[in-house]
Write a structure and sequence with these properties.
mainly beta, 7-stranded parallel β-sheet, 15 strands, about 0% helix, globular
Length: about 180
């Protein structure tokens, strides 16, 4: 088993595309550094990964759709970056995921995920934690969210501070927290 943990190592600059050559990696932890730039699409070559932690950096751009190649992932944390655009529907390929965190701590609008929560999220039947708070997610919440094994009553589920529109699925209608519904139909 090979785990590369460089958390809090003061790393700067971009994640090089050559990261995709480390195909033996089972865990990659680059959290709490000062990494900038986009997540390279080559990350999708790391098909043995069970854990990918890029949280608490200054990564920008979109979540690459190639993330959907990482079908062994159980933990994916891209939170507390400056990621934008939509959550790729390929996230639904990660059927072994138990933990998915994409929350944003940023209060500026350009540093947030947008678009709708992809209905493919309902494919993640092993998911026990889903944290999407503090983004600019819009539209309705897919009914398929109720198919997940999440305990919606505790901190393992948080979608507050988005722009998600009612009606909300019955399983979470009192768990959505604060939503800006001013642009809702």
């Amino acid at each position: 088993t090979t785990f590369l943990n460089l958390s809090g190592s003061g790393l700067t600059g971009e994640i090089p595309p050559e990261i995709g050559n480390l195909t033996y990696l089972i865990g990659l932890v680059l959290s709490s550094n000062q990494l900038i730039g986009e997540i390279p699409s080559e990350i999708g070559n790391l098909t043995n990964l069970t854990g990918l932690f890029l949280n608490n950096n200054q990564l920008t751009g979109r979540i690459p759709s190639e993330i959907g190649n990482l079908t062994n992932l159980t933990n994916l944390d891209l939170s507390d970056n400056e990621l934008t655009e939509e959550i790729p529907p390929e996230i639904g390929n990660l059927t072994n995921l138990t933990y998915l965190s994409l929350f944003s701590n940023f209060l500026t609008e350009e540093n947030q995920l947008t678009g709708e929560i992809p209905s493919e999220i309902g494919n993640l039947t092993n998911l026990t934690s889903l944290i999407l708070s503090g983004n600019q997610l819009t539209g309705g919440i897919p009914e398929s969210i109720c198919d997940l094994n999440i305990n919606f009553n505790n901190s393992s589920f948080n979608i507050t501070n988005n722009q998600l529109c009612p009606p909300y699925p019955s399983c979470i209608e009192d768990k959505v927290g604060t939503q800006d519904t001013s642009d809702c139909p």
